[in-house]
Amino acid sequence: MLVSFSFYKLTKGECRNMANIKFKHQGIQLMQEGLFEAPDSVMLDAEQHNISEFNFDVPINGTVYGALLNFKGAYAQYEGQLNDDPYKAPPKAPILYIKPINTYIGDGEAVPMPQSEETLSAGAALAVVIGKTATRLEKSNALDHVAGYTIVNDISIPHESIYRPAYKEKARDGFCPIGPWITERDSVGDPNALKISVYVNGELKAENNTSNLIRSVEGLLADVTEFMTLYEGDVLLVGVPEDMPLLKAGDTVKVEVEGIGVLENEVLDENQVAGGKRK
User: Fold this and answer.
1) Cα–Cα distance for residue pair 46/40, rounded to 1 Å
2) What's the CA angle centered on 180, arms 12 and 137, to 5 degrees?
3) C-alpha to C-alpha distance for 126 and 255, rounded to whole angstroms
4) Which residue, of 84, 119, 166, 187, has the greatest Cβ tally within 10 A?
């Protein structure tokens, strides 16, 4: 069943507490559009709805790429090791990795805790959604290729080395919650000045800001597209801050990015989860 809605379109800079959003409702393939009004309502078809009425699905359909050590604090934690083996020198280009499709789950779905593990690391990230083919961009025009922004919790099994991609630690089923929606670019303002907060069981555990990025959003897009093309629908994580909290089975983790929204997921033993749902 396909459903479409009409809605009031917010103009650029009209209200900081409102944002144009695009999202997928579980069971409906069509991307829907609405107007989010902080803190907890969405306007659809000229009617107000509480966000609790929605079951949000993963709002993206491209490849998710992540960038390591792009927060100043995260880089500082490794800086003393980067001239030693096996690294031998600090990185000159962005350190990228991929979150494959098996990792994607939506807002409200469950992150599986592998039976072999006792804790997982949260990974709060601003996610840049590409709006049109991007290759060899300049910083001055990079944001013209951005459709909007969403939130990713880049879950991983705690590990120390960044010498090789940590696929076993980062590419498990359900290790990439995404959502709850895509906030349109012009509703966000400056993506390099957004507060990121992480809550575990309602308690604030970590806070940072994209003003602490080494490569700005524009700079990262320019550097990445110098050697690889990003296509419409692809997603680029600008980085995960340092000192992310550890999660255990039974925890509820909430990632909030200023101007974007809130992504919330529960961590459950993998035997309790099937396809992101509690059995």
Assistant:
1) 16
2) 55
3) 10
4) 187
Cis peptide before 86 (omega within 30 of 0): yes
Amino acid occupying residue 108: G
Looking at residue 6, its pLDDT comes to: 33
Say what the pLDDT of residue 16 is: 54
The bridge status of strand 146-153 relative to strand 176-184 is antiparallel
H helix intervals, the chain:
72-79, 167-170, 217-225
Q: Mean pLDDT by 10-residue block, N- to C-terminus, for the chain (279 residues)?
A: 34 62 87 89 87 92 96 89 74 91 97 97 98 97 98 94 77 97 96 98 98 98 98 98 97 97 97 84
Q: Which of 109, 155, 60 is nearest to 276 (CA)?
A: 109
pLDDT number for residue 15: 45
Q: Give the C-alpha separation, 108 to 153, whole Å.
A: 12
Percent of residues in the chain assigned helix, strand, coil, to nearest 5 = 15, 40, 45
Q: Is 245 helix (H, G, I), strand (E, B) or coil?
A: coil
Give the residue among 91, 161, 98, 150 at the shortest CA–CA distance from 126. Answer: 150
DSSP assignments along 73-122, one per residue: HHHHHHHTTTTSTTT-S--SS-EEEEE-GGGEE-TTPEEEE-TT-S-EE-
Query: How far from the centroid of its chain's Cα atoms is residue 105's Cα?
Result: 11
Sequence-ordered list of residues with C-beta below 8 angstroms from that of 116, at least 6 positions apart, any chain: none
Structure tokens at 125: 């990230």
User: Alpha-carbon torsion 229, 235, 241, 244, what sign?
Assistant: negative
Rounded CA gap, 156 and 21, in Å?
A: 28
Tokens 């880049």, residue located: 154
Q: Return d(Cα 30, Cα 3) in angstroms, integer.
A: 7
